[in-house]
Amino acid sequence: MTHNGEDTASLRRPDVTELRLASDGPDLEFSSAPEPAQLPHDRSQAILEATKEIGSLLKRAGHPFALAGSVAVYAHGGSRYLQHDADFAILPDDAEAVAAALSEAGLPVRTPPEDWLLKTTCHGQNVDIIFALAHRPVTRDMLDRAHVLPVDSVLMPVLSPTDLIRSLISAFSEHYCDFGSVLPVARAVREKVDWDEVRTTCGGEPMPAAFLFLLERLNVIDAQEGQS
Questions:
Q1: What pLDDT digit, counting tens, does each position of 66-110 carry?
Q2: Domain of life here (predicted)?
Q3: Which of 47, 102, 116, 222 could make a disulfide contact with 107, Cβ separation 3.0–4.6 Å?
Q4: CATH architecture label of 40-159
């Protein structure tokens, strides 16, 4: 789920000419150099364009899904400063059919060493098609809880804030514990999250529990009842 930034295409002066040999004789002729290509959208907009195309494709194909990751946070009112890629959660049993739909649409499909996702590329952006979140399979109930929200004007299902936060902090472990990247997300959606549900389902693990304690100390969320 690289920092955002604008990719700057190399520019050529439009008044530069190229010297080439004419095909029908020894005379020389001059031709104007091609006009420089338009500068690309900023990285966040490129990720949104990829999200809209993949989301529309999955809707047309009838595959249940929910948007996840940083674009889901954006859809719930978080920062438009998007990072890395777009993420879609699908059912494990639909992985093969979704891969076929992407291939039929002309998109490359790659199977990485991890056995819980597929990868594709759209508008030059990486897109992860995920069928397990934090080592737990995506379920029909999770997709049914998704909220249908506009993503840059395209409606699509988005993981509920509670499922989104749960998936992010359940991934914390001794080997990966980047509280700093998830803290702004928790701040952005804190009023929409069922924190009791989050505590019940993943608060017993050391790293998620430490993050919840941090949120309490920073007054992002209320302390659990019965704790001082």
A1: 999 989 999 999 887 776 789 999 999 999 999 999 999 999 999
A2: Bacteria
A3: 102
A4: 2-Layer Sandwich (3.30)
